[in-house]
Amino acid sequence: MKKTPTLVLLKTASRLVLLIGAAVSLFLVIHAGHKNASVILPLLFVIWVLSPYIGLLITIRISKVWQASSRTILHYLVISSTLCCVIAYSGILTPSDVKPAAIFLITPLLLWVAIAITIPVLRSHKAK
């Protein structure tokens, strides 16, 4: 597949945003669960919160054979979904009556659903 300078820059930016977003999400989930006496429950939350980021990194790797337009869309989706997740985990937009655990359970689920819907569509995208 042909690599344009813009696509290379976008790929680099999406990976960087993804890695920083995963690190911030890791910090926020650990901070939210720091009072929990259990070792296993916070570990499960960490794995659950980081799993979509790992899935997106794997998707970026396998997207090398996709059309350039599909890869461009993927990189924009990675950047926007990562930013949305970090905003959700930060609690900036969370109503005061919502427990933090709910955000750390629902957000990765929603991201996995988005990945499951988007990736097959982008893979099947044909050049015109």
End-to-end separation in angstroms reads: 15 Å
Low-confidence stretches: none
Class computed from helices, strands and strand pairing: mainly alpha
Number of helices: 4
Note the overall shape: elongated
How many structural domains are formed by the residues?
A: 1
Q: In total, how many beta strands?
A: 0
Mean pLDDT: 91
Strand residues, percent:
under 5%
This entry's quaternary arrangement is: single chain
- Sketch the topology as an H/E string, one letter per element: HHHH
C-alpha-based Rg, rounded: 16 Å
Structural features, described:
The chain contains four helices and no strands. Helices cover 77% and strands 0% of the residues. The two termini are 15 Å apart. The protein is mainly alpha-helical. Helix 1 runs antiparallel to helix 2, helix 2 packs parallel to helix 4 and helix 3 (68-90) runs antiparallel to helix 4. It has one domain.
Summary of the model, kept short:
The chain has helices spanning 5-32, 40-62, 68-90, 100-124. The chain is mainly α and 128 residues long. The chain is elongated.
Write the layout of secondary structure elements.
Layout: H1 5-32, H2 40-62, H3 68-90, H4 100-124
Helix pairs in contact: 1-2, 1-3, 2-4, 3-4
